[in-house]
Amino acid sequence: MILGLTGSIGMGKSTTAEMFRELGVPVWDADATVHQLYAEGGAAVAPMATAFPKAVRNGAVDREVLRRIVAADPDVLPKIEAIVHPLVAAHRMTFLEGDAPLVVLDIPLLFETGANAQVDRVAVVSAPPEVQKSRVLGRGTMTEAEFETILARQVPDADKRAQADYIIETTDMGTARAAVATIVKELT
């Protein structure tokens, strides 16, 4: 059984993924995979160096430089995705070769990339908009404008919720933990 776990930025998806891990469920993390691919020796470094030489420093992709490149010219995003998405998909397929009865694919852009077609069920992590915004801006890693830009590229929370088999509310972590336990029990 493959459970796709998704949620917009600041909804608590990483925390929720950890709850699945704590219950012994293997979790594949799309963001962590991209970090590995961009790290020194990662499979994305050479093709990114060819396409965006300024984005590669000390043998690794500098995500901040890459972010500035995309901010200056959003039309380059499909070129980046054409390099990275196939590598991410290959890594995911290797993960799925295991034999666990339930696995979680933690994919922030599950619907945006069409990866929902490759899972058996979908769990959406959600919180009220004011909680989401407070969490993201509270990190101190982006401006409100950057947050709004990211939100604009994501499927709206209401649409994700409408397509979900499970909704995990993360305003209260006890409630979220109970929802995760229920899902694991139901799917194993």
> Architecture of the largest domain, according to CATH?
3-Layer(aba) Sandwich
**Helices and strands: which structural class?**
alpha/beta
CATH topology title of the largest domain: Rossmann fold
In total, the number of strands is 7
Major sheet details: 5 strands, parallel
Overview of this protein structure:
- This protein is an alpha/beta fold.
- It folds into two domains: 113 residues, P-loop containing nucleotide triphosphate hydrolases (Rossmann fold, 3-Layer(aba) Sandwich); 64 residues, no CATH class.
- The protein contains nine helices and seven strands.
- The strands form two sheets. The chain has a five-stranded parallel beta sheet, sandwiched between helices. The protein has a two-stranded antiparallel ribbon with strand order 3-4.
How does the SSE layout of this entry go?
Layout: E1 2-6, H1 13-22, E2 27-29, H2 30-38, H3 45-51, E3 56-57, E4 60-61, H4 63-72, H5 77-95, E5 103-106, E6 121-126, H6 129-138, H7 144-153, H8 157-163, E7 166-169, H9 173-187
Parallel strand pairs: 1-5, 1-6, 2-5, 6-7
Antiparallel strand pairs: 3-4
Helix pairs in contact: 2-5
Task: Give a brief description.
With 188 residues, this protein is α/β, with parallel strands linked by helices. The chain is 52% helix and 14% strand. The chain has two domains: 1-26 and 102-188, P-loop containing nucleotide triphosphate hydrolases (Rossmann fold, 3-Layer(aba) Sandwich), CATH 3.40.50; 34-97, no CATH class.
